[in-house]
Specification:
- By secondary structure, the chain is of the alpha/beta class.
- 29% of the residues lie in helices and 23% in strands.
- The protein has a four-stranded parallel beta sheet with strand order 2-1-3-4, with helices on both faces.
- Helix 2 links the parallel strand 3 and strand 4.
- The chain is globular and about 35 Å long.
Length: 91
């Protein structure tokens, strides 16, 4: 990944998304990369040429908190870019 590649941060208002925003911003600042935020339900996300996708995992599957959410699973499976999955801090 080139250091100036765009970071795409997926948000949805959840605590995990807030953690993803923090992690995405920290890493982008460290690498000098621009950041774009998109809502998880936005179809625009698929058309953005990003160097990395940052997403929160809500872990609402069969074992809450230990499995990835469906959005993060699909991104890991199908995205051409690296995907950073960030878990929300423990409550």
């Amino acid at each position: 990944m080139k250091s100036a590649s765009l970071f795409l941060v997926v948000v949805d208002g959840s605590p995990a998304a807030s953690a993803a925003v923090d992690a995405g911003l920290d890493l982008a600042v460290e690498l000098g990369a621009p950041v774009r935020f998109v809502h998880a339900s936005s179809p625009l996300a698929s058309g953005i040429d990003a160097g990395m996708i940052v997403v929160g995992s809500r872990g609402l599957g069969a074992v809450a908190g230990t499995v990835l959410g469906s959005v993060s699973q699909n991104l890991i499976r199908y995205a051409a870019q690296p995907v950073l999955v960030v878990h929300a801090p423990a409550a």
